[in-house]
UniProtKB/TrEMBL annotation:
It holds the Pfam family ADH_N. Residues 11-320 form the Enoyl reductase (ER) domain. PANTHER family: QUINONE OXIDOREDUCTASE-LIKE PROTEIN 2, SHORT-CHAIN DEHYDROGENASE/REDUCTASE. This is NADPH:quinone oxidoreductase family protein. Coiled coil: none annotated.
């Protein structure tokens, strides 16, 4: 079968499609025929050998997947032919995959395969960030950096689904429409966002900052927090030097900086992803969670999809088509 593989960790340009052996499902695994694969920031880092997970090449890329069940263990609640989404650290960008039962989720009828491949990592990360790490309450205000990207739009939608007011921060006017369509109540440009947020909140600031971008906006994000505010560190899409914090700012203003390591947490919390999925389903049914799919690529163009992601051209979640 075909698989998108890293054979040398020299970046997206050297990602290739190879023939690899068919997977065999273990006793606690679901065998899935893949229809779509989501393109994720970890894929980009894996292609460069820069991710915290460092498999030995050659290995298959692909974190998020959507497809149909070929086989499932008894008692899993899944049936042959059922539409599902799934998630793994890597290895899903191939025609068939075997995944642990705990990381496979039945797709609601209204969710397409394209949308299904956009759901697991980004939306479960966003839900973990806002529910588990921020303790977000209805009526609070959330600022989302990088709000036009895959994780950004997911965070916007989950925050709205939890009853928050959302201020989206984007890097250009071209991305404003994407953040608005995702459900943000207000959208501001990254340049000058601190003053814009102060005006929008009447000088109070926001309760939560979801920072996916990092970079030189970190200090202004801290300054944008209301008393008892929480700054969530979700990633460093801007690249460059990782921001530093002077802890006296935290003490003087009664604010927190909280790390968001969804993948690390799920390793020590069996069953947690399924609990998250159950919290997301009402948001899907209500229409708050509706993954905005960006460009859809063919399997041979996975490397190009990663290049577009690296060069900040992607809006919404990029998806790769494996089969119709």
């Amino acid at each position: 079968m075909r698989a998108v593989q890293v054979v040398t960790t020299t970046g997206p340009a050297d990602v290739v499609v190879n023939d690899v052996p068919e997977p065999e499902a273990g006793p606690d695994e679901v065998l899935v025929e893949v229809h779509r694969v989501g393109v994720s920031f970890p894929d980009l880092l894996l292609s460069r050998g820069e991710y915290q997970l460092r498999p030995e090449p050659p290995f298959s890329l692909g974190v998020d997947v959507a497809g149909t069940v070929l086989s499932a263990p008894d008692g899993s609640g899944l049936a042959v032919g059922q539409r599902v989404a799934g998630v793994a650290g890597h290895g899903n960008a191939q025609e068939r995959v075997a995944l642990p039962v705990g990381s496979v989720f039945a797709l609601p009828d209204e969710v397409t395969f394209d949308q299904g491949a956009a759901l697991p990592m980004n939306y479960l990360t966003a839900e973990f960030a806002l529910h588990q790490r921020a303790g977000l309450q209805p009526g609070e205000t959330v600022l989302v950096h990088g709000a036009a990207g895959g994780l950004g739009t997911a965070t916007v939608q989950v925050a709205v689904g939890m009853g928050a007011r959302v201020v989206a921060v984007v890097g250009s006017e071209a991305k404003r429409e994407t953040a608005t369509a995702a459900g943000a109540h207000d959208v501001v440009l990254r340049d000058g966002f601190k003053d814009a947020v102060r005006e929008l909140t009447g000088g109070r600031g926001v309760d939560v900052v979801a920072d996916i971008v990092g970079g030189d906006a970190f200090t202004d994000s801290l300054r944008s927090l209301a008393p008892l505010g929480r700054l969530l560190v979700l990633g460093f899409a801007a690249g460059g030097e990782i921001p530093q914090v002077k802890v006296n700012r935290l003490l003087l203003n009664n604010v927190d900086v909280r790390g968001v390591g969804w993948g690390a947490y799920t390793f020590v919390a069996p069953g947690y992803m399924q609990e998250q999925w159950q919290r997301l389903l009402p948001m899907v049914a209500a229409g708050a969670v509706r993954p905005p799919v960006g460009r859809v690529y063919e399997l041979d163009a996975f490397g190009q999809a990663l290049t577009d992601l690296a060069e900040r051209r992607a809006q919404g979640k990029s998806v790769v088509r494996v089969r119709d």
